[in-house]
Design a protein that fits this description.
Layout (H helix, E strand, L loop, with lengths): L1 H16 L3 H9 L8 E9 L5 E8 L14 H8 L3 E6 L5 E11 L2 E11 L9 H8 L1
Antiparallel strand pairs: 1-2, 1-5, 3-4, 4-5
Length: 137
C-alpha cells in the first residue's frame, strides 16, 4: 500500500510537470518509477479506425506504423485485453527489447497505450494491479 501511494504520488508529480507527451516520456524513463534497464517510453492514441498513432516518445520505441488494435503486436494485445501486456519485441532500431504496454482506457474502452521498452531480458519494476488500474484511467 505504501509503495502504491509513493508510485501514484511520483506519477502525479511527473504528469503535472510535463509540458508535452514527449516530455512525460523523458521524465518517466529517468524517474524512480522505472529502473536503469528502461530504454524508452511511448504514448499512443487509438483513432476511430482502431489504428495506433504516436503522441510522444523518448528513447527506444516499437515500430507501430499501420498497427491496429486487432494486430498481433504488444500494443494491440494490451488494448484488446485491457491489461498490461509484456513481450520480447524488436525496437525501431532492430534490437531486441522487453516491451511493457499499459492500456489507457476511458471506462472500459481502450483509447491508447503507454509502452515502456527495457533492455532485452530485463524486468519492469513491480506495480500493483490497483496502482495500474489508476494509471490506466
Amino acid at each position: 500500500m505504501k509503495q502504491d501511494v509513493h508510485f501514484l504520488d511520483e506519477l502525479s508529480s511527473l504528469l503535472a510537470s510535463a509540458s508535452s507527451a514527449t516530455d512525460l516520456c523523458r521524465k518517466l524513463v529517468h524517474s524512480d518509477l522505472t529502473n536503469e534497464s528502461t530504454t524508452g517510453a511511448s504514448v499512443f492514441s487509438i483513432d476511430q479506425q482502431a489504428h495506433f498513432h504516436l503522441v510522444g516518445s523518448y528513447g527506444k520505441g516499437l515500430p507501430a506504423s499501420g498497427v491496429s488494435v486487432w494486430d498481433e503486436h504488444p500494443l494491440g494485445s494490451a488494448a484488446r485485453s485491457g491489461k498490461v501486456h509484456s513481450a520480447t519485441a524488436l525496437a525501431i532500431d532492430g534490437a531486441d527489447v522487453e516491451a511493457y504496454c499499459i492500456p489507457l482506457t476511458k471506462g472500459s474502452e481502450p483509447i491508447g497505450v503507454l509502452c515502456f521498452t527495457l533492455s532485452a531480458g530485463a524486468k519492469m519494476n513491480f506495480i500493483s494491479p490497483e496502482a495500474l488500474s489508476v494509471v490506466s484511467k
